[in-house]
């Protein structure tokens, strides 16, 4: 069985080889050599490798399975993925992303890092800080990440409300599932975007929807930058309608130098790193290795992506 990795990460390649000694693991050769490669069974891809993946699939239509290390396929050539099995390392980075979200919520409530002092303040013992107790957390999307966020928010005695594109009960004690996204947005003190990026979610947080947010509320995005109308976001931050935007994603990525998101005082921006933890790469590798063993045995794969739906 031949597997092509679209990136060079020796430690991951060695772990895969050790787990599946019979597999022929190759790092993608220069494009000119693609046609001369023998038949390829599977591809291990990573975000940012869409061009290489497109070239490889065009040269090797026999490829039956593609595994994506992350969870999103919005930047991949979907027309080339149709008819093939596509999987992802779903759940591998759920914990660090959920922790990042809670860190942003706490930072907003406790006015961090702005409440730290480096010289004597005007007043000791007094500050205008908020609490999470009794506050409403709205979550758009209730997959693995949304559920992990909800569990942690419940531990802080927050009121948790969720909305999904297709209504279903949340199935988690203490979590309210609602049918109307707009109604959820109007009630949230902190609003988390945890939906996959698809043609249906692009521009979800339009100028109209941003205007529905509670005055002084907090927008958190760990999905994709394409879900938010960035120009409208700036207007709502400037007006005070939205007090803070905590963004781990942007549109485009990488965000060019000089972009207003870098400098706006009400924006907390990180460079798509919320998924990182000491165990993240190991868990993503383990998800692929488990699927590689299943693929070799002809068994059902985990983390299957619906290429028609885009997630």
UniProtKB/TrEMBL annotation:
* Keywords of the record: NAD, Oxidoreductase
- Respond yes or no to whether keyword NAD is given for this record: yes
Q: Show the Gene3D superfamilies listed in the entry.
A: NAD(P)-binding Rossmann-like Domain
Q: Where is the D-isomer specific 2-hydroxyacid dehydrogenase NAD-binding domain?
A: 102-274
Q: Does the keyword Transcription apply?
A: no
> Which InterPro entries does the annotation name?
D-isomer_2_OHA_DH_cat_dom (IPR006139), D-isomer_DH_NAD-bd (IPR006140), NAD(P)-bd_dom_sf (IPR036291)
A Gene Ontology molecular function term of the record: oxidoreductase activity, acting on the CH-OH group of donors, NAD or NADP as acceptor
**Recorded superkingdom:** Bacteria
Q: Which residues form the D-isomer specific 2-hydroxyacid dehydrogenase catalytic domain?
A: 40-305
Family to which the UniProt record says this protein belongs: Belongs to the D-isomer specific 2-hydroxyacid dehydrogenase family.
Protein name (Swiss-Prot/TrEMBL): Phosphoglycerate dehydrogenase
Which lineage is the organism of this entry classified under, starting from the top rank?
Answer: Bacteria, Pseudomonadati, Pseudomonadota, Gammaproteobacteria, Pseudomonadales
């Amino acid at each position: 069985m031949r597997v092509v990795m679209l990136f060079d990460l020796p430690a991951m390649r060695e772990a895969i080889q050790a787990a599946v000694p019979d597999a022929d693991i190759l790092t993608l050769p220069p494009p000119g050599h693609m046609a001369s490669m023998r038949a390829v069974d599977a591809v291990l891809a990573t975000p940012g490798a869409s061009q290489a993946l497109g070239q490889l699939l065009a040269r090797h239509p026999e490829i039956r399975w593609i595994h994506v290390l992350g969870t999103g396929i919005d930047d991949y050539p979907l027309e080339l993925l149709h008819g093939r099995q596509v999987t992802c390392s779903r759940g591998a980075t759920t914990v660090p992303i959920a922790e990042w979200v809670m860190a942003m919520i706490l930072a907003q409530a406790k006015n961090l890092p702005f409440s730290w002092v480096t010289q004597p303040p005007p007043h000791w013992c007094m500050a205008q800080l908020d609490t999470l107790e009794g506050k409403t957390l709205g979550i758009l999307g209730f997959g693995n990440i949304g559920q992990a966020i909800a569990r942690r928010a419940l531990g802080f005695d927050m009121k948790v409300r969720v909305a999904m594109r297709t209504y279903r009960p949340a199935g988690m004690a203490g979590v309210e599932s609602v049918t109307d996204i707009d109604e959820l947005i109007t009630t949230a003190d902190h609003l988390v975007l945890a939906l996959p990026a698809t043609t249906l979610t692009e521009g979800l947080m339009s100028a109209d929807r941003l205007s529905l947010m509670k005055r002084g509320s907090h927008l958190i995005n760990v999905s994709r930058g394409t879900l938010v109308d960035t120009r409208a976001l700036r207007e709502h931050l400037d007006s005070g309608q939205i007090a803070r935007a905590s963004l781990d994603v942007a549109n485009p990525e990488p965000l060019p130098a000089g972009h207003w998101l870098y400098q706006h005082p009400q924006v907390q921006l990180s460079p798509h790193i919320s998924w990182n933890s000491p165990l993240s790469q190991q868990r993503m590798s383990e998800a692929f290795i488990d699927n590689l063993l299943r693929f070799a045995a002809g068994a059902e794969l985990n983390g299957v992506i619906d290429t028609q739906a885009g997630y």
